[in-house]
């Protein structure tokens, strides 16, 4: 789809001029505005209220210094971010990413996507995101703790249970959330649900660890069923080996699929007999090791390790045959050539567990080849949905069972797919779940912004 609406084209040019050097953010805004063209043509009232102009500009951007002392006694300095993008339907909600690639543009793109993702869950959560260019890899627990305490010392001035509720993201797991929560509690002298992804002993929710991966498969299952297909006996290629990839592998396998790959930033495992998930959990969750250690430790004799991206889809025996692709690693991991390889190797469905893992060129290839496409803001919303459920439990001072949380998550993901499907049909693009997700997510926020006036 091409952006042809004159009003939205002018708006996009202003966004590009105002956010130079931030390609990820501009890419995300371009995709959303392009799919919102039918809405702009039908809803002059939203144009008159300035909703489109306001929704692409963050309500607040916070950038701060994070000094900390390493184990050798040397002072290190990182940069911290929190983008409070939109609070029209609830407190800002979105994760904290700790990775060397983090800069303002990445956080803005993630925060912008979060607006629509959170809206789709039907829970009262606005869009926000944060993080730092700190790299927890290779750091001792003491170094990670000192960084997290310094980071939260500044961040605590800007967040709260009814204002902004951060969560984990890449590089921010249970350890980091624990250190940040402890520092917040110490500084503010209050025990509130200010962070989600907490440990079960201090307000965390059961099923949160599994939520994004499980939710991805719940959404994908609905998408497949709506098109006369299912996971059963299908070959699934998954990238990544963190929480999302591990629990997508677990749930896809429960649905009867055979997951044949996992990966990390160095390379990937191809196991035609199906991934040995218990071994992957041991390597990545317990030992914090590299995925290449899978070779030689699994009983699966046909497993292979290869350097580089799993989306080259090559192995010693030839091309990897697949049915369903679930990218669960990072943004822009699938480019146009990789998408063509997915199609050439038999892939008929792609659903995104990572945030924006497909480039615009890749998405064009999906549509050109009639590949079912579940965009991240819908397909991977299970994580933030369960974070919202954690907020509810904290507010009630209750803890629900795993089965209760999982059932609520499953229903949320079913309803997200239905919303995307119905919006795509209503606006003349049946089967385009990317457009459906953007439109359905946008309209709820837009109506709230219009009702609240020019703020």
What is this structure, in a nutshell?
This protein is of the alpha/beta class.
Largest beta sheet: what is the strand line-up? Answer: 9-8-7-6-12-13-14
Which shape, going by the Cα principal axes? Answer: globular
CATH topology of the largest domain, what is it called? Answer: Rossmann fold
Q: CATH-wise, what's the superfamily of the largest domain? A: NAD(P)-binding Rossmann-like Domain
Please characterize this protein's 3D structure.
It is a single chain. Helix 2 packs parallel to helix 6 (104-120) and helix 6 packs across helix 17 (433-451). Helix content is 46%, strand content 16%. It is globular. Strands 9-8-7-6-12-13-14 form a 7-stranded mixed β-sheet, with helices on both faces. It has a 5-stranded mixed β-sheet with strand order 1-2-4-3-5. A two-stranded antiparallel sheet has the order 10-11. The protein folds into 3 domains: 6-55, no CATH class; 60-191, Rossmann fold (3-Layer(aba) Sandwich), CATH 3.40.50; 210-374, NAD(P)-binding Rossmann-like Domain (Rossmann fold), CATH 3.40.50. A hairpin with a 2-residue loop joins strand 10 and strand 11 (318-319). The longest helix has 25 residues, at 402-426. The chain has 455 residues and is α/β, with parallel strands linked by helices. It contains 17 helices and 14 strands.
